[in-house]
Amino acid sequence: MDNNYLNFRKKNENETELYIYGPIEEKTWIDDWFGDGKDKVGAFTLKEALKRVDTPNLTVRINSYGGNVSDGLAIYSLLSEFEGHLKTIVDGFACSAASVIFMAGEERIVPENGLLMIHNAWAEVRGDSNTMQKASEDLAKITQPSLNIYAKKTKLSEQELKEMMDREEWITSQEAYDWGFSTSQERKGEYMQALEADFVHDLVLKNKELQKELKELQQSNSDITQVVKKATKEMFDEQVKKFEQKLLNENQKQKTLEVLDCSSKNQINEDTWVSFFNTKK
User: Fold this and answer.
1) Could you give phi then psi for residue 23, rounded to 5 degrees?
2) Does the domain formed by 8-193 have CATH 1.20.120.450?
3) Residue ranges covered by each domain of the chain
4) What pTM was computed for the model?
């Protein structure tokens, strides 16, 4: 089965391949007018095309930066309802809405040079503070279904996933497998990989290495800071103890002098009285 728009290909009587190698959105009349959008994949058109799949196995191969949240969620639902065996493969990137589509697979493969990227839904908004607040609340609700899908299919908690989406996380093949986004890293057959994807993949890995080194350095600095703080506190405490001991000694010395002084005065008074009475005699 060949389709230039949806890139369907029937490999044999057992398997059909679907290539999602472009934006996740419906083709519009503007695209038709200018002859663009041939690589777009929309939910409505996919729905009609899936009816023609007559093989027990469907493999969806993805290399997409994503697109509309609504189309991504709808395609996820359509693929999830496929009655045969569904396999999803990342040939390059599966970003944003494309990563949601990837999660539809019963068998999910991110090869060693594939990447996922997850983030929150976003939009361009104009208006006053009420409009902005409403938009913020709406975007949180629009993001939630994708978050639910990741939480259902992976080993991560909703809170962990939310933090990853907040920072727009790039996920490597090993991370995808460890966290449960993929079920395998195994490569079978030919997997397409664009030079751009290779380049970005290398950048992501280098960035993650730098982040790890920075975190270790921060931890090391934190440990050094704690040691310095502890040593400083111990030195301070020691000085305080010495000062207190000095004060104690000074107080004790002062008390001793006062006692001696008092004793001396008493003795003088006593000698005076004795002398007085002796004189009278």
Assistant:
1) -60, 145
2) no
3) 8-193
4) 0.65
